[in-house]
Specification:
Layout (H helix, E strand, L loop, with lengths): L4 H8 L3 E5 L2 E6 L3 H10 L2 E4 L3 E7 L3 H6 L8 E7 L2 E5 L1 E6 L5 E9 L7 E7 H14 L6 E4 L4 E7 L3 H8 L7 H5 L5 E5 L8 E5 L6 E7 H13 L3 E3 L1 H10 L15 H4 L2 H4 L10 H10 L4 E9 L9 E4 L5 E11 L4 E9 L4 E4 L2 E4 L4
Parallel strand pairs: 3-15
Antiparallel strand pairs: 1-2, 3-11, 4-9, 4-10, 5-6, 6-12, 7-8, 8-9, 11-14, 12-13, 13-14, 16-19, 17-18, 17-20, 18-19, 20-21
């Protein structure tokens, strides 16, 4: 059980802990319905303990990571206004030579030309495989890896009031709420002389309401969490986060993606792969699929109707036969859709599937 200041604050607020891939995190705060309502109509503050953070330093960490990460390398930090730093975090996959995923992650450039540093935001389900891969491919003198999960923390503030509250409490009104809400996904702002020491407020679309992830030193993030809750935010946990994530059709590594997944199957390639960049591990397979082939399955958001939530791994059958043509990875009761919805892998070309005797249409995209 974590003993961080943030964890202590959440437990004191009534957080109910649970296990997630061998890690403790807050599942809920006693009233998931109220947490969902707050996130979609006002303000909620989410625990993000299901993420890990690695700092990559050395002589040339960005250059070394270019051949490992599949996406566009991040920019920043640069001064975007007096006393305000900013940049763009970028989304990536890390692949085997066969094009299958070790993990996905977000990369943030925190250092500058004199002391370059990359911060990687990684799902806990993929962090050990990523560390092992780094031990094999990154020369320590040029790219040293440090796990900073315990010394840093991360929350996500969600809801229509999120930009205004973070503008005031995290950025001291140096960045207006309209400026925050106008940022593209991954763009971030921080106040102070150093992006390492301040709170980085990052626009995210991992869930569908207006949302901002805040990462920084643990004591600063814990203080912000308390301040945001004092300002009216509802504490919220993984249960409601998962509902909002599936409603946004965003897959997560460890649940909807695994070491057997090719990014194109999960539909993340348009976000995670830079087709213009130079060589990276697994690129040959990705380019071959793009130019000459197709994957056999793809992830789709299915609307299941008014039915009980199916279990992860539930089989989807071909209409009119008992042939398996897919399986469910995540399923939730969705207030937004007014029915049960699921993320599921479905064989390419299949237009409808059967689950528990019920025919379900498969969207083309």
């Amino acid at each position: 059980m974590s003993t961080s200041l943030l964890w202590d604050a959440m437990v004191e607020a009534g957080g109910v802990a649970g296990d997630y891939h061998g890690h403790q995190l807050i599942r809920h705060f006693g009233d998931p319905a109220a947490e969902y309502l707050a996130a979609t109509s006002s303000l909620a503050a989410f625990d993000r303990s299901h993420r890990a953070r690695l700092a990559i330093t050395g002589r040339a960490p960005a250059k070394m990571l270019t051949g490992v990460l599949t996406g566009r390398m991040p920019t920043g930090p640069s001064q975007v206004d007096e006393g305000v730093l900013g940049g763009d975090a970028t989304y990536h996959a890390v692949l085997t030579p066969k094009g299958k995923m070790l993990t996905d992650l977000w990369a943030i450039m925190r250092g500058d030309a004199t002391a370059e540093e990359m911060l990687l935001d990684v799902p806990v389900a993929g962090v050990e495989a990523l560390k092992e891969n780094f031990r094999k491919v990154l020369p320590p003198r040029f790219a040293a890896v440090q796990d900073v999960t315990d010394s840093t923390s991360m929350i996500t503030v969600v809801g229509p009031e999120a930009a205004a509250v973070l503008s005031r409490l995290a950025l001291g009104l140096r960045v207006g709420s309209d400026d925050l809400s106008g940022l593209a996904e991954g763009s971030w702002r921080s106040v102070g002389a150093s992006a390492r020491e301040g709170l980085a407020v990052i626009r995210t679309e991992e869930v569908w309401p207006d949302a901002y992830t805040v990462v920084g030193p643990s004591d600063s993030v814990a203080a912000l969490w308390r301040a945001v809750v004092a300002a009216g935010a509802r504490p919220a946990g993984l249960g409601v986060w998962s509902t909002l994530r599936v409603e946004a059709a965003r897959p997560v590594f460890g649940t909807d993606m695994s070491e057997d997944t090719i990014p194109i199957e999960a539909g993340i390639h348009n976000r995670a792969i830079d087709y213009q960049k130079g060589c990276y591990t697994g690129q040959e397979v990705i380019i071959r699929i793009r130019d000459r082939g197709k994957v056999n399955r793809h992830l789709r958001l299915l609307q299941l109707g008014d039915v009980p939530t199916p279990a992860k791994g539930a089989e989807l059958l071909a209409e009119g036969s008992d042939k398996s043509v897919g399986w469910i990875t995540s399923a939730v009761q969705s207030p937004k859709f007014g029915e049960t919805i699921a993320l599921a892998y479905v064989r390419r070309g299949v237009e409808s599937v059967v689950l528990d005797g019920r025919v379900i249409s498969v969207p083309a995209e």
